[in-house]
Amino acid sequence: MSEENKVNAGQVQLTPADFTSKSEPRWCPGCGDYAILAAMKKVLPQLGVPKEKIVFVSGIGCSSRFPYYVDTFGIHSIHGRAPTVASGIKLANPDLKVFVITGDGDGLSIGGNHFIHMCRRNIDLTVVLFNNGIYGLTKGQYAPTSRKGQITKSSPYGTIEDPFNPILMALASGATFVARTIDRNPKHLADTLYRASMHKGVSFVEVYQNCVIFNDGAYSEFFKPDTKEERTVYMEHGKPYVFGKNKDKYLKWVKDHFEVAPYSGENDEGIILHDENSINPTYEFSLASMSLSPDYPTPFGVFRDVEKETYEDLLLDQIKKVKEMKGEGTLEKLWDAGNTFYINED
Description:
By secondary structure, the protein is of the alpha/beta class. It is built from ten helices and eleven strands. The chain has one domain (about 5-235, about 275-285, about 295-310): Rossmann fold.
């Protein structure tokens, strides 16, 4: 490696190629997973973390092949339990940078309970949820995020369920960083993954991702040139929620909800500046509720970015205090602690 690729500290500056494993990605041609993988490999060298201190943990599903395709440590765990495995890794070795890779089926159905408590504890994990609105690996059944009325192999006459909202779930569960991006906007995707990776605490990123075989075009309204300006609003800290082809619409706050209104300038009535650091959930919950609504643009960007004590820091601090109070423990002391009894043969 040339000298220009060395950082001042004497460490080797890694590149995306350094994170490319020898395993060839096995996704369908055109799958949005490729875009997420490319964005992640672009972000990883920017983190300044050695490869041997990075771990990817996945569950089951198409997205869960991800650890094979990144040249770091990784675990392909079991269905829905990636948050549990990742939590154990982080608590056992807090110096590691741990990612959780999951899908809308893996993370929000069988894994929903584990997801909630991971967010509640605020463990320092970066969670990337690939949301294609379908079960891809098992060949096209409807998923928790499938839209109402969607025709699939397990709902031939249309699903009668309302879709699950991952952003609302993450916000309500206490995640300290919550964001949404899309596979067809590579710059925004990479920027969002970078910000999530640098956050201290649980960071959750929902990625709208295309399944070219079983749910092709599910999110096309958010990237096609003739619709994306009207159907998306990109949230920026300190700026109003302006959207539209000519930036002539905004989200106006009226009493307790947002409404779409014509935009003329910063003095418009009911204008709200996006505050991703706010601890007041009113606006972020209202924004999250707009997801996929035909009456509102769907928000993309960071909903929340706040600081809070992490579970592993609190745990280590507790262990330190107990050691100071009771001294260093041993296996023998633990074995003989508490009430014991003996069973005599006679």
